[in-house]
Automatic annotation (TrEMBL):
Gene3D superfamilies: ATP synthase (C/AC39) subunit, domain 3
Annotated protein name in UniProt: V-type ATPase subunit
Organism per entry: Anaerofilum hominis
GO molecular function, one term: proton-transporting ATPase activity, rotational mechanism
The keyword Transport belongs to this UniProt entry's keyword annotation: yes
UniProt keywords, alphabetically: Ion transport, Transport
Family matches, as SUPFAM superfamilies: V-type ATP synthase subunit C (SSF103486)
Length: 346
């Protein structure tokens, strides 16, 4: 259990980390920067990122390098909190599983788009020795067979083998569903094994709500951008078998909707728009993530469970990284700050 005194010390440490999160004013300042280099220089002097970004050259920082350093910053936060009596195989391991899934998805994306050699340029050295497979072997992969070999003797081999056996029929979306499904299955099993029933409810909400947002986003994007490309059964096959507020039968009803208007009617008819946003007014994904951000911040502020606080602060850090990448991309392509702002999730 996580209630040892050393574990309880995690709570003030996590709240101290969150105290330095970017404010609305700071996000606004970043959106008005003129280049990626200016964003890097700003973050380098921010107390939340000073350690992770120390040593970068302000005038030469590349977008990809800055994004890697922001990922490393989350890992440093994880390491700073994990030392509070979280041993190998404990609840905290969910974070490493998430990192493994992200790396595999990135490697598969590069291979599918014909750029597998690009992986080595952003290989996260801070994860060396932490993942259950060799990241260098993944970087050397030049075929789906190579990726399978890199993950041999890990749970990922079983998941990916039926999906990568025929390169001609490669389906990235199916791989993403399998890998993300494994992550949530693992995380929720760790929750059930670690927490009392009372404590587990708050932690489970974080993971199940995040998975639910993923499912809503899948349905929305298909209806908005590929309305005639997927049948209802094909959409359902891409959804994670995890729910928080929305029962599976409602997701199936949304998958059967003919176009965005019908989807919005089904979705709004059951009141999910109150928490997750309105499909008819804006992409609900940003609204849904804002809701999850608020739920996580509330848990971090009031929870007395170290594991719950750990999950909340790492989720908040990931949302913040996503916001920064949105700003970096927006500034890079000259977007108006007002257009960037509506995409942020806080």
């Amino acid at each position: 259990m996580l209630q040892k005194k050393s574990s309880l010390a995690l709570i003030p440490k996590a709240r101290g980390l969150f105290a330095h999160q970017l404010t609305e004013r700071e996000y606004d300042e970043l959106m008005h920067k003129r280049s990626v280099a200016e964003i890097g220089a700003y973050l380098k002097n921010h107390p939340c990122f000073r350690d992770s970004l120390s040593g970068i050259q302000d005038t030469h920082i590349h977008r990809r390098r800055l994004e890697e350093l922001l990922s490393r910053d989350i890992y440093y936060k994880y390491e700073a909190l994990r030392r509070y009596d979280f041993s190998s195989g404990s609840f905290a391991h969910f974070f490493i599983v998430d990192c493994e899934v992200q790396e595999l998805l990135y490697a598969l994306h590069l291979l599918a788009t014909g750029s597998p050699g690009d992986y080595i340029a952003r290989l996260p050295s801070f994860l060396a020795g932490q993942t259950c497979f060799d990241l260098l072997a993944l970087a050397r992969a030049r075929s789906f067979a190579d990726i399978l070999q890199a993950v041999a003797h890990t749970p990922y081999h079983r998941l990916l083998l039926p999906l990568l056996s025929s390169p001609a029929r490669f389906d990235y979306a199916a791989c993403e569903r399998a890998l993300r499904g494994y992550y949530y299955e693992t995380a929720l099993a760790l929750v059930d094994r670690t927490f009392s029933r009372r404590e587990a409810a708050g932690v489970r909400e974080l993971f199940t709500r995040e998975a639910e947002i993923y499912n809503l986003d899948i349905i929305y994007r298909i209806k908005a951008f590929f309305p005639d490309s997927y049948s209802a059964a094909e959409i359902e096959a891409l959804l994670l078998p995890v729910n928080c507020e929305i029962p599976p039968r409602r997701l199936q009803e949304m998958a059967r909707a003919r176009g965005l208007k019908e989807l919005a009617a089904v979705y709004k008819g059951y009141g999910y728009d109150r928490a997750y946003g309105d499909f008819e007014r804006e992409n609900s994904s940003a609204c849904a993530w804002r809701h999850l951000y608020q739920v996580s911040a509330r848990i971090l502020r009031f929870s007395s469970s170290p594991g719950t606080v750990l999950a909340a602060v790492l989720l908040l850090a990931r949302i913040e990284r996503g916001n920064l990448i949105t700003i970096i991309e927006g500034v890079r392509y000259g977007m108006d700050p007002a257009d960037i702002r509506v995409l942020l999730k806080y």
